[in-house]
Amino acid sequence: MSQSAAKELNAQDISEPQADAESLITEHLDLWTSAITSRNSTGRGSNKKIELYGIKKLRELILELAVRGKLVPQDPNNEPASELLKQVEEEKARLVREEKIKKPRKLPKVSVEDSPFSLPNGWEWERLGNILNVLNGRAYKKHEMLKTGTPLLRVGNLFTSKEWYYSDLELEPEKYIDSGDLIYAWSASFGPFIWNGGKAIYHYHIWRLDIFRGDLTTKGYLYNYLSEVTESIKASGNGIAMIHMTKDKMELLPIPVCPVEEQCRIVAKVDELMALCDHLENQTEQSLDAHATLADTLLDALTQAQSAEELAENWQRLEQNWDLLFPASIAGERAIDKLKQTILQLAVMGKLVPQDPNDEPARELLKRIKEEKERLIKEKVIKKQKPLPPISDDEKSFELPEGWEWCRTDDFCEGITSGSTPPKTEFSEVEGVPYLKVYNIRSQNIDFYYRPQYISDGYHKNKLSKSRLFPGDVVMNIVGPPLGKVAIVPDTFPEWNCNQAIVFFRPIEKALNRYLYLYIQAGTFLDSIELIGTAGQDNISVTKSRSMLIPLPPLREQEAIAERVDKLLSLCDELKERLQDAQKDQKDFTTTVVRQAVD
Q1: With contact defined as beta carbons under 8 Å apart, do 94 and 316 qualify?
Q2: Distance between CA 591 and CA 35 in Å, rounded?
Q3: Is the omega angle on the peptide bond into residue 76 within 30 degrees of 0, that is, cis?
């Protein structure tokens, strides 16, 4: 047989799962990059996050295809894994004879029932404990954790913590790790790492994994296998499995072993495809950032318009880019949230509905409210509050339409104050006066039956009379994050109460509550209000809540604004729901593609 003929025969003998795997990945690039899920909260101080679900599933798929022998071709000329395992067993016996390791326990063979999937020719199942030695770290007492000495590696240092401790203890060699060692964090946060931080002592919640024959079972291949196992545990949705990951269970894990040459090809291909995932991840994030900039530009132009004509032109420009601005993706969903805030801002700037010169101007409304408030103070129905400073020109952030007036919330409300916390003995989960906490303000409404609490009627009337709430009152949280959650107290109960993290507004003219609710929803006051507290938990004082600056329209225009906003926000919610359904379809399709790829 000629050399060329032999090469041709060898090429025909090699199976080609690689072509299928690569085509699966490349043909679905749009799917991997478009399947994105959101984890959102709203309000100042919120931390909006996204999960690149498609790319996450792609990474998991690459690892699973790798350990199943479906990522690179098999070569029948490679020495089979059965021979490799014999040599590993011989090396392990030598290490025991020379007392370099303790005699390991005998592990059961991997049965057909224990085999998660069928293997390609030349592969073998083996227990992980027969491939490597699992070494425990050391637990430390507080006084042993110092500021100088040898670095002490804890699980937190592998994931999020930048706080390091050190030790001056002289320990046996197996309690140290060095660059290039394979380790595994097994408590709380967990997973494999190839350590590159130099000599360190590793904590009890980390294992050092010493490979018996590193020339036959490579660290890169074992790292990929352990990464896939870790993802499988996470995907199972069972948090208990994480907590109860023991050394015995680790050693019993069935590992698919392939020829060492194929291990090297797998590691190289995984590295190549993971680099592709990194590129896709960066590209997707840049695309989302670019889309967010587009949304900000088009929507901010509406609120920045200086005339009705300019506003109409900017709206027309937005309509021309509608499909680009609101695609069926997380970017479109974010743009809708931005549109909703823009609608609210336009509403409180007087740009959402036309002004009617026949409406009674807001200054007349404020005069009547002032007279009524003075009467209530005189009759001792409400207390006189310390006067607030006059409104300066610097505080006015835009020019008001005809008939509008700048005022402070205290100008049209009864005494604005927050609630307080009664003793635990006054609480009940079944009866009494409903008691609101910040977590009951959800999606800009009162959700009392989310963790409901009541206080006794007597304590409500006698001890907490200053924080009695009534239907129609506007409540807002003043402790964050996030700040500015707002709701109107419903008529589910005749009276309510609240804790000190909530401030409430009771307009003297009851009809003002809807507009005040929309104004707080718009959130623009948070940009100018002075906060107290730390960056981690900002607070709005009750005094600042009283002095909030608000552009007040005529009463009839307030009603028109509220109706218009309700209609537009409802349309936004319908659009958002359709986009979310489309995203769910993308996520489900991604999951289906991955499942079919490994079946």
Answers
A1: no
A2: 10
A3: no
- With a threshold of 0.85, does the pTM exceed it? no
Mean pLDDT of 439-455: 92
Rounded-to-integer distance, Cα 362 and Cα 384, Å: 23
> Tokens 């909006």 sit at which residue?
48
Spatial separation of the C-alpha atoms in residues 463 and 460, rounded to whole Å? 6
pLDDT, mean of residues 570-588? 88
Phi, psi dihedrals of residue 476, rounded to the nearest 5° = -145, 140
- The string of DSSP letters for 326-375 reads S-SSHHHHHHHHHHHHHHHHHHHTT-SS---TTSPPHHHHHHHHHHHHHH
Tell me, letter by letter, the H, E, C secondary structure of 523-551. Answer: CHHHHCCCCEEECCEEECCHHHHHCCEEE
For 247-262, give one letter per residue: b (16+ CB within 10 A) or e: eeebbebbbbbbbbeb
Q: Name residue, tokens 């002032």.
A: 370
Residue owning tokens 């326990």: 105
Give the span between the Cα atoms of 479 and 470, in whole angstroms.
22
| Residue closest to 540 by CA, chosen among 593, 478, 582 | 478
Helix (H) / strand (E) element for 53: namely: helix 53-67
Of residues 302, 112, 95, 319, the one with CA closest to residue 212: 95
First to last CA, the chain: 39
Q: Measured between alpha carbons, how far is 77 from 69 in angstroms, rounded to an integer?
A: 16
Instruction: Confirm if 239 and 52 have CB atoms less than 8 A apart.
Output: no
Q: Which amino acid, 69?
A: G
Q: Annotate 2-37 with b (16+ C-beta within 10 A) or e (fewer).
A: eeeeeeeeeeeeeeebbeebbebbeebeebbbbbbb
Q: Under 8 Å CB-to-CB from 131, ≥6 apart: which residues?
A: 88, 211, 212, 217, 222, 255, 257
> How does residue 11 score in pLDDT terms, banded at 50, 70 and 90?
very low
Query: For residue 236, what pLDDT is reported?
Result: 56
280, 62 contact by CB (below 8 A): no
497-498/433-436 β-pairing = parallel
Contact call for residues 342 and 314 (beta carbons, < 8 A): no
Residue 149, classified by CB atoms within 10 Å of its CB into exposed (0-12), middle (13-18) or buried (19+), is middle
- Would residue 69 be called left, alpha or beta, if left means φ above 0 and alpha means ψ between -120 and 50 degrees? left
Decide: residue 484, CB within 10 A, 0-12 exposed, 13-18 middle, 19+ buried.
buried
Tokens 């809807």 belong to residue: 514
Structure tokens at 251: 């050693």
392: tokens are 């300066």
Q: Which two tokens stand for residue 327?
A: 């695609």
Burial class (CB in 10 A: 0-12, 13-18, 19+), 434: buried
For the cut 60, the answer to whether the pLDDT of residue 337 exceeds it is: yes
Cβ contacts of residue 9 below 8 Å, gap of 6+? 1
**Residue 481: is the preceding peptide bond cis (ω within 30°)?**
yes
pLDDT at position 468 is 92
457 φ, ψ to 5°?
A: -60, -40
